[in-house]
């Protein structure tokens, strides 16, 4: 860096102006060498005969002569954490629920049509990880008087817990190819969900264990509830004693 001083007349008075000159080097690329990593190997992946998602039944089939049974709300089917179907069978990609909720027949069709349009059936496949709608939901007609027993069955739903894998997608493809349309479909579901891969699931669980291990706050929710600090047990439900306010 060099400086140059000039004498100038400013409003009839002589003054000195210092100009700084930066000697910035410039490079012009003439010939470059690019190194791209080798693509992943998918020789171990086997594509099934049916690659698209099957059509789910709107109403479950009952034996002839059996009246379709009615059911209570049973909200416990949606509360808490999924302990069984919380991993990817093919260890590739899928959609995971982040909260509890219910899936209707319309939601199954949104996922089936959305994935079927975007996926390449020559090298990709998709499978369901949830059952068809089986829990009946009753509804009474508008303007009816009270009484008269429980209403008629209006539709069927599938209860979902947090951490449940809803649909799984695999094949000879990378996560960047399928992440966008899987995330768009996950945003259309009636509860929070996200597109995940096998590596992302492992990283999330590792980070959860690491955060719990490195936590510097001694007064965790588990410690507060188990020691009844402030008499909090008088206002807690049995689910809070089991999940410590993690899944509400």
UniProtKB/TrEMBL annotation:
<dbReference type="Pfam" id="PF00252">
    <property type="entry name" value="Ribosomal_L16"/>
</dbReference>
<comment type="similarity">
    <text>Belongs to the universal ribosomal protein uL16 family.</text>
</comment>
<keyword id="KW-0687">Ribonucleoprotein</keyword>
<keyword id="KW-0809">Transit peptide</keyword>
<keyword id="KW-0689">Ribosomal protein</keyword>
<dbReference type="GO" id="GO:0005762">
    <property type="term" value="C:mitochondrial large ribosomal subunit"/>
</dbReference>
<dbReference type="InterPro" id="IPR036920">
    <property type="entry name" value="Ribosomal_uL16_sf"/>
</dbReference>
<dbReference type="InterPro" id="IPR047873">
    <property type="entry name" value="Ribosomal_uL16"/>
</dbReference>
<dbReference type="GO" id="GO:0032543">
    <property type="term" value="P:mitochondrial translation"/>
</dbReference>
<protein>
    <recommendedName>
        <fullName>Large ribosomal subunit protein uL16m</fullName>
    </recommendedName>
</protein>
<dbReference type="GO" id="GO:0005743">
    <property type="term" value="C:mitochondrial inner membrane"/>
</dbReference>
<dbReference type="GO" id="GO:0003735">
    <property type="term" value="F:structural constituent of ribosome"/>
</dbReference>
<dbReference type="InterPro" id="IPR000114">
    <property type="entry name" value="Ribosomal_uL16_bact-type"/>
</dbReference>
<dbReference type="GO" id="GO:0019843">
    <property type="term" value="F:rRNA binding"/>
</dbReference>
<keyword id="KW-0496">Mitochondrion</keyword>
<dbReference type="InterPro" id="IPR016180">
    <property type="entry name" value="Ribosomal_uL16_dom"/>
</dbReference>
